[in-house]
Amino acid sequence: MFRFGLLTSGGDCQALNATMRGIAKTIYRNSKDKVEAYGFEDGYQGLIYGRYRKMEWGDFSGLLTLGGTILGTSRTPFKLLDTPEADGVEKVPAMVKTYRKLKLDCLFVLGGNGSTKTANRLREEGLNVIALPKTIDNDTWGTDMTFGFASAVDIATRCIDELHTTANSHRRVFVVEIMGHKVGWIPLYAGIAGGADVILIPEIPYDMDNVIDTIRRRDEAGGRFSIVVVAEGAISKEEAAMKKKEYKKKVAARVQPSVAYDIAEEISKRIDHEIRVAVPGHTQRGGEPSAQDRIFATQCGVEAARGALAGEFGYMIAQRDGKMARVPLEQVAGKLKYVDPNGELVQEAKLLGISFGDE
Ligand code: F6P
């Protein structure tokens, strides 16, 4: 008998179901032994409280195009892993118990950075774990790509595209807030794909003077509008120099709390222009996966299943230099993958005339 468990953890994305389909189909098709599959509900919570459902081959049909997660998800912060649940349940021992009770041969964890850290902890407890790199943010260290990212970029790009016509009609500046609290991969990619004039990301603190200059130059050259893409975590040079506590207080005090409104207000004080804000928000995580995501999710699923059937555990599936790869969990845990301000894409965007507000 080959018994495996699946859970989806952290913020959802479009390609979770497609990935689980890839894992399950490959296992059912290639296992020499009979297969038993268990799906844990709502992320690690299902593993902690033994909330699972036995799944069959047919449960994994029709999932390639289905967004969200059929298992549900939740956030179980790594820093609270050793703090008991409100009802006193100790998380890690409870998870190990459920795994052992079901006699699992492998647990597949589809999650982002925090979830991968927890997966590594479970590995240290002796469980056979394989992690798969989920997140629209693309900020997982050790892999060139995460599933969810390509779909989110497509949605964010479409949003920016659609703002062009109305911005042009009304001679407006649009400030578009794109997801990414700590890293700016989606704003960077969608900003370039959507023809943004300014892209502000957490990795490159901006100076408002430079943003205003860019808008002014466009106006002087006869442009009717400007599109300013801001990451959720866009930060000014001034804010970057603040004490962490002071900056956190400032963020907490924001209306919404949205950086886009702050930036729009700041722009409106300094330039005579009609300004509007657009926040696509969680639409960036919703709906069906893009074609690129479906392919990558499938590859991740197949590779994870292949490893499990070979009895190899303790790593995260990754893509490195265009090839599928494995990265030991202890190497990935706790590291974020940031946009390199001196990297090729940022430099090319600058040559094209996109401002990052830093110069
Ligand atoms: O982790 C992905 C992400 O979508 C971030 O880009 C975003 O800031 C955050 O999750 C929002 O998460 P939620 O509203 O689900 O807590």
Automatic annotation (TrEMBL):
Whether Magnesium counts among this entry's keywords is: yes
Subcellular location(s) per record: Cytoplasm
Q: Which GO terms describe its cellular component?
A: 6-phosphofructokinase complex
Matches recorded under InterPro entries:
ATP_PFK, ATP_PFK_prok-type, Phosphofructokinase_CS, Phosphofructokinase_dom, PKF_sf
Which cofactor(s) are needed, names only?
Mg(2+)
The UniProt record lists the EC number as 2.7.1.11
Keywords attached to this entry? Cytoplasm, Glycolysis, Kinase, Magnesium, Metal-binding, Transferase
Q: Which residues form a coiled coil?
A: none
Annotated Phosphofructokinase domain residues: 3-306
Pathway note: Carbohydrate degradation; glycolysis; D-glyceraldehyde 3-phosphate and glycerone phosphate from D-glucose: step 3/4
Name one molecular function that GO assigns to this entry: ATP binding
GO BP, one example?
fructose 1,6-bisphosphate metabolic process
Q: Which family does it belong to?
A: Belongs to the phosphofructokinase type A (PFKA) family.
PANTHER family noted in UniProt: ATP-DEPENDENT 6-PHOSPHOFRUCTOKINASE 3 (PTHR13697:SF52), PHOSPHOFRUCTOKINASE (PTHR13697)
What protein is this chain from? 6-phosphofructokinase
